[in-house]
């Protein structure tokens, strides 16, 4: 684990080692001060030698100033190492999440990933920033303090043989219970974040159903659980302080008792006892630092495990394709394809699907809710991988293409596609970062987005709220179609992406797509038979199985289910 973490310190190793060196040098100067102080008392004060006192006092001040300067340098270097480590770790974790397939993302909830990218890494970052000093200073001060105290009086230093094991035993017992407490606390934080995210994402639904009070009660429950978990964890952690103080003051009393007897018998001087007490306080403070480091590490270990779970998650879709292999025509074939979201699932979502889609064809896919229409098209750009069988594009298995080229050649517009915070122009440029104004106008004209862009106050430079909340659902869908068109895809998948658009506008979009992109393979998932009436092929799906394939006229004549749906919609029951 240490080796794995060391990788993230590599760009900041100079700052890390520099901060450690500063702390060690600072300890040396601080440990010299009690020796100088003992000399001042036993020599300068006893002999009433003012010049000796001033000389030694000046040396003490010089040591203190040197320690202060080293501490200031450490603060700067330690901050660089700690903050840099956190930024590097967060960057690598985010990069790994970007490499995940949809199936990988199914293993983690979104709020949990957010917590692991923010709270957990902040804990590790703070542990480094606040932990370098006590981690180095504690052992150095304790070791050197023990050496100095043994040099002053070996008999009196025997008190530590009892105090240190007693302190270590108590710290061990506290640490045993802290790990599980911190793990439960972070899980409860995941729960709180989940409630907040769901509530804010669906705030319009919450308000329309007047569920504000029930959502507040749900949040109060999650927040209370997090509070209870935090209270238990920090209550256990705070036991460290009173326990340490009990051992520390008991140790000081013993030293004063035995030290007083040594002075009485003449085997120890007052200055030596004063210096010895200074080293005792330094040793005990170093033990306190070490105990705090262990407490910090206890919480950090929980966060390290959670972060490493993300880093160790192997992307289930490997990008081993040929970088030089390109898609030219956009023909697609499904050959005995079966699919399930989890390897342990008992039943397939798609079963033994075989289809041929010619280049430049328009394909319609129909089916009831849960028929696996979206699952079918998500296999083409490898958002998921097939469980059995294979899919080819231009005669090559999709796994032979690089993921970048494959997905860049497939334009996919979902019913609930997302727009990002920023201007309309910035959102459209996701499709092609180098698109000219003429290309933007071209894509928006085909998607019929030009009909409302002219009415917006700033046109393409109109600022959208998060998720495009300040435009209608139909406008959002048309912008998403325009964004996909800017990719100039070889295969265009429209997954119920005009459900919020009126039928007249939808017809315009279809006609303009056919006119402007005759060579592009178009796959439409819809509930409206009128939308796919002119399709080259219409595919009926039911419970993950293909039940019929054919043109509108063929299915109308030969397939009873299709005929019933057509007659039902023709009566105007469904628009």
Topology readout:
Blueprint: H1 2-9, H2 13-45, H3 50-99, H4 102-105, H5 110-117, H6 119-152, H7 160-201, H8 203-208, H9 212-238, H10 240-265, H11 270-312, E1 332-339, E2 350-357, E3 362-367, H12 373-378, E4 388-393, E5 396-397, H13 403-408, E6 410-413, E7 422-423, H14 424-428, H15 437-446, H16 450-453, E8 463-464, H17 473-485, E9 491-495, H18 503-516, E10 521-525, E11 537-542, E12 545-550, H19 552-558, H20 560-570
Helix pairs in contact: 2-3, 2-6, 2-11, 3-6, 5-6, 5-7, 6-11, 7-9, 7-10, 7-11, 10-11, 15-17, 19-20
Could you write a compact summary of the structure shown?
With 575 residues, the protein is an alpha/beta fold. It has three domains: 2-312, ABC transporter transmembrane region fold; 322-409 and 489-575, 3-Layer(aba) Sandwich (Rossmann fold); 419-488, 3-Layer(aba) Sandwich (Rossmann fold).
Describe the protein in words.
The chain has 575 residues and is of the alpha/beta class. The chain has three domains: 2-312, ABC transporter transmembrane region fold; 322-409 and 489-575, Rossmann fold (3-Layer(aba) Sandwich), CATH 3.40.50; 419-488, Rossmann fold (3-Layer(aba) Sandwich). The protein has helices spanning 2-9, 13-45, 50-99, 102-105, 110-117, 119-152, 160-201, 203-208, 212-238, 240-265, 270-312, 373-378, 403-408, 424-428, 437-446, 450-453, 473-485, 503-516, 552-558, 560-570; strands at 332-339, 350-357, 362-367, 388-393, 396-397, 410-413, 422-423, 463-464, 491-495, 521-525, 537-542, 545-550. A hairpin with a 2-residue loop joins strand 4 and strand 5. The longest helix is centred in the first third of the chain and has 50 residues, at 50-99. The radius of gyration is 35 Å and the shape is elongated. The two termini are 60 Å apart. The mean pLDDT is 84.
């Amino acid at each position: 684990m240490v080796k794995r973490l060391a990788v993230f310190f590599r760009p900041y190793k100079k700052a890390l080692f520099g901060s450690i060196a500063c702390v060690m040098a600072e300890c040396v100067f601080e440990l010299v001060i009690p020796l100088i102080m003992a000399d001042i008392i036993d020599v300068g004060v006893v002999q009433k030698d003012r010049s000796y006192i001033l000389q030694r006092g000046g040396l003490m001040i010089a040591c203190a100033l040197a320690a202060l300067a080293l501490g200031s340098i450490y603060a700067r270097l330690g901050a660089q190492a700690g903050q840099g480590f956190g930024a590097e770790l967060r960057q690598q974790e985010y990069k790994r999440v970007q490499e995940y397939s949809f199936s990988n993302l199914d293993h983690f909830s979104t709020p949990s990933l957010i917590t692991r990218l923010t709270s957990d890494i902040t804990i590790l970052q703070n542990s480094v920033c606040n932990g370098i000093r006590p981690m180095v200073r504690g052992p150095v001060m304790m070791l050197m303090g023990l050496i100095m105290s043994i040099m002053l009086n070996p008999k009196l230093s025997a008190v530590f043989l009892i105090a240190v094991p007693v302190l270590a035993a108590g710290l061990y017992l506290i640490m045993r219970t802290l790990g599980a407490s911190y793990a439960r606390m972070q899980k409860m934080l995941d729960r709180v974040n989940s409630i907040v995210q769901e509530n804010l994402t669906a705030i319009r639904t919450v308000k329309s159903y007047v569920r504000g009070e029930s959502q507040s009660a749900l949040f109060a429950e999650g927040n209370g659980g997090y509070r209870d978990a935090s209270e238990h964890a920090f209550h256990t952690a705070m036991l460290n302080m009173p326990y340490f103080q009990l051992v520390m003051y008991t140790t000081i009393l013993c030293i004063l008792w035995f030290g007083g007897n040594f002075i009485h018998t003449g085997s120890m001087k007052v200055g030596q006892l004063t210096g010895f007490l200074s080293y005792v306080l330094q040793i005990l403070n170093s033990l306190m630092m070490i105990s705090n480091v262990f407490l910090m590490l206890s919480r950090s270990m929980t966060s390290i495990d959670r972060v490493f779970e993300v880093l160790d998650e192997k992307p289930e879709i490997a990008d081993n394709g040929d970088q030089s292999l390109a898609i030219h025509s956009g023909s697609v074939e499904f050959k005995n394809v079966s699919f399930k979201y989890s390897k342990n699932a008992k039943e397939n979502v798609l079963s033994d699907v075989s289809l041929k889609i010619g280049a430049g064809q328009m394909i319609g896919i129909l089916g009831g809710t849960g028929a696996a229409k979206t699952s079918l098209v998500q296999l083409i750009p490898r958002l998921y991988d097939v469980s059995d069988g294979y899919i080819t594009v231009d005669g090559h298995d999709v796994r032979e293409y690089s993921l970048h080229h494959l997905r860049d050649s497939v334009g996919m517009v979902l019913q609930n596609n997302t727009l990002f915070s920023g201007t309309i122009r910035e959102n459209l440029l996701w499709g092609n970062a180098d698109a000219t104004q003429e290309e933007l106008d071209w894509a928006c004209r085909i998607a019929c987005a030009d009909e409302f862009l002219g009415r917006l106050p700033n046109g393409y430079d109109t600022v959208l709220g998060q998720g495009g909340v300040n435009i209608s659902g139909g406008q959002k869908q048309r912008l998403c179609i325009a964004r996909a068109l800017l990719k100039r895809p070889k295969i265009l998948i429209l997954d119920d992406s005009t459900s919020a658009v009126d039928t007249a506008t939808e017809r315009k979009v279809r006609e303009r797509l056919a006119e402007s992109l005759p060579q592009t393979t178009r796959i439409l998932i819809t509930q409206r038979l009128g939308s796919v009436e002119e399709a080259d092929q219409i595919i009926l799906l039911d419970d993950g199985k293909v039940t019929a394939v054919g043109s509108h006229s063929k299915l109308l004549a030969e397939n009873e289910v299709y005929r019933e749906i057509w007659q039902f919609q023709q009566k105007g029951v469904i628009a």
